[in-house]
Structures are given as structure tokens and as C-alpha cells.
Design goal:
Distance between the termini: 22 Å
Structural class: mainly alpha
Number of strands: 2
Radius of gyration: 17 Å
Number of helices: 7
Strand order of the largest sheet: 1-2
């Protein structure tokens, strides 16, 4: 999944703030728990604090009992990447947006790979939907594929 490849640019700053070592992977369990803990974000500079808060708001807010380790952050992140692509951004623009908005670094090749995998999954869903006579789902899936591939 794409979330497994996302790195948090400010991991070292968060590590110093937390007082213990954390991986730079944005969606690792340790990073998610650290971001959800009671850290004094006010000691960070404004831009970093805003990126962390935007990351928190976009991906870590859910009502699951096991939050933030429930899987919702990763699903929300994958959805965000797909939405950005369907809104017309290319893989480089998606990477720039994620870096500017959330401080998340992703290689453009990783984004392309994820988009390609997503199209293959959607094609399989469309094929199964057609076989089961669910034409509305097949059409909707085809429309989504076209938005991703454009």
C-alpha cells in the first residue's frame, strides 16, 4: 500500500520533541502513536506545526476503538492520493502537494506504481461486476479508471 512508502519529512523534529527514537515512516505504528500522544506541538515552528495538524486532521481522526492503529489512516491516505489524481494532478504534483500540505515525502515512481495497481484492482472489480450482472457498478468502476488514467 502507498502508506507504507510515505516518509514524514519532520520525523527528526518529532523525535526530539517526543524524547525517543521513531521511524520516519509516516504511517508506522510508533509514528502514529507519537503524533496522537500529548506532545507540545507549540514548541515547533509554525509551518511544521501546521503540517502536523493538517496530517492529524486528514488522516488520524476516526472513532475506531483502536485508533490510530485501526487502519483508517492508511485507507484515508490512499483515498487522498486517488482523489488528487482524479482531480487532475499528475504523480509529481501529487508528491508536491503531499509534501507542502502534510510534510509527507513520496517518490513519484511510488505514486505511479500505486496508481497502476489501483487501476488493475478496479479492472478486476469491473470484470466481476459485469459477470454478476451489476452493470451500474461496472460503469462506475470504468468511470473511475478513466479518471485515474487521464
Amino acid at each position: 500500500m502507498i502508506a507504507d512508502r510515505a516518509r514524514f519529512r519532520h520525523a527528526k523534529k518529532i523525535e526530539r520533541l517526543a524524547g525517543y527514537r521513531i521511524p520516519e515512516l509516516a504511517f508506522s505504528g510508533t509514528m502514529l502513536e507519537t503524533l496522537s500522544s500529548r506532545i507540545d506541538y507549540d514548541s515547533l515552528d509554525y509551518a511544521v506545526r501546521e503540517q502536523i495538524l493538517a496530517f492529524f486532521d486528514a488522516f488520524l481522526r476516526c472513532n475506531c476503538r483502536d485508533s490510530p492503529l485501526c487502519g483508517c489512516p492508511e485507507k484515508k491516505f490512499a483515498t487522498k492520493v486517488l482523489e488528487l489524481r482524479m482531480n487532475g494532478l499528475d504523480h509529481r504534483q501529487i508528491g508536491s502537494y503531499l509534501l507542502d500540505e502534510y510534510g509527507i515525502e513520496l517518490f513519484p515512481a511510488d505514486i505511479l506504481s500505486f496508481l497502476e495497481e489501483s487501476v488493475h484492482v478496479l479492472e478486476a472489480i469491473a470484470d466481476v461486476a459485469r459477470l454478476q450482472g451489476r452493470d451500474v457498478l461496472a460503469k462506475k468502476t470504468g468511470d473511475t479508471i478513466r479518471l485515474i488514467e487521464r
